[in-house]
Amino acid sequence: MNPSQMLAETFVDELVRCGVRDACLAPGSRSGPLAMALASQTDMRVHIVIDERSAGFLALGLARGSRRPVVVACTSGTAAANLYPAVTEAHQDRVPLVVLTADRPPELRHTGANQTIDQIKLYGDAVRWFCEMGAPEERADLVPYWRSAACRAVGQATGSPPGPVHLNLALREPLTPGPLEERVELGGRAGRRPWTQTSKTRHAARPQELEDLAAEVSSVEKGVIVAGACDIDPEPVLKLAHCAGWPILAEPGSNLRTGSEAISTYEALLRADHFASRHEPELVVRIGRIGISRALTAYLGPEIRQILIDHDGAWLDPGRSLSWIIAADPSKLCADLTKMVSARRKSTWLDEWKQAESVARAAIDGILDAADEPTEPRTARDLAGALPPWSTLVVAASMPVRDLDSFMSPRADLRVLGNRGANGIDGFVSTALGVADSTEGPTAALCGDLSLVHDQNGLLLARHGGIDCVFVVVNNEGGGIFSFLPHADFPATFERFFATPHGIDLGMLAALYDCRYELLEQAGDLEPLVAKALAGGGVHIIEVRTERSANVAFHRRIWDEVAAAVM
Hints:
Rossmann fold, 3 domains, six-stranded parallel β-sheet, 22 helices, 15% strand
């Protein structure tokens, strides 16, 4: 076995021993040894994707859905550069990826050799660890190094904080096994144990921190729990809110929008100045990264005491308003706090929030249900409510995630995911299909037309079969979110430079990739169309056509009617 193949075989074998079960490979010559090594593994699923950017986001979706590290591998040159968007998202949102880039050996670098760029620390500080593996040699004493590096890659990717790692593999020719070469024993621990096992423990708050926080929570009636995107056990947080008598303002991606304390209409309520000013909290406990709602951001000013609980102690404070950051597992800390905080028998504060939630929800639902014409707010609300129990909903950035935040009703048995790290629309299709391929239960995706078009290469995966996902695509012929921004006040430049209409027929696009297609004619038909698509299997696109200016007016009407209802 030649040295390049020895390195690839040893490294991939060790990744499998460390529990890695999925790899995304973009084909190439220099990465040939990696391809051959992946092909020989029976304990790893290999997904072949011709577009490196799509491969990166497919790996991201697989890692999000499975909560396990996923490999993405490619050849040298711009192939490696095309992984950068997915690496950035994984870095920002703490998703474990093991990025393997094949490279020319040192003697071919900076010589004008084909497909050669500088790949050393290509992703800068966006990775938890970088390793230039060095050109392999046919030496048995290198095997422990290769295996140790694979273990470290997985350990760093799943550490605190988790995220992407990058290993650059300088591979010399030959890049395929010779005709007479035989597989050789490449060492490894007995019983297929990892060379170096890494273990993770849950971060716990110090006793004094717990005592101080419990005293604060116990002494404050007008408190709020605010939850942004996170992946934790929700039950302890819900119990703490119930015990403290506090409302929960939870983004859908927190998976905490459930229970009697959940205020699902907080976006509309906080847009009503008279309500927000009368309900300023004295203490806020924050979990996860917030940022969807501008009204919530404005509500949480630096004059309010705010405490962030984050597993890794991340500095999630764009508004410079935090008073205290506690590095601890949020679920464990909330469970411990609940034991220390005396249950509040009566909370006028919480009762007022619940009453406002009831009034606002009735107003919103009344407006949404009044017409049969499809609208973007109703599409978001109805899709979240229509999915079967224990489904996963993947939501795109821009308007879809905002509409889901504004209009989704409380629900306990729905997992909501999205690329909220860098908040980009790129790679959405690939991410959603990766989630669908790595999770049990039905998967649906909510996105805008630009998110679909931007990553339509991801739909190539649909042609191979085996993945079931329903895409509900809101088509307002361009970037609808810009219509809500000051850019819309400049009509001479708005359409061409910001709205960017594309003129693509989504039905024809679906046919190109062998996806099933339906056009939503009436709003009330969404639930049966989604049910039919889920039952049929495969990848479906349900198009919802809207008009941008009418959508802006409809949103403003909702905000106005809610404000009037909670006077």
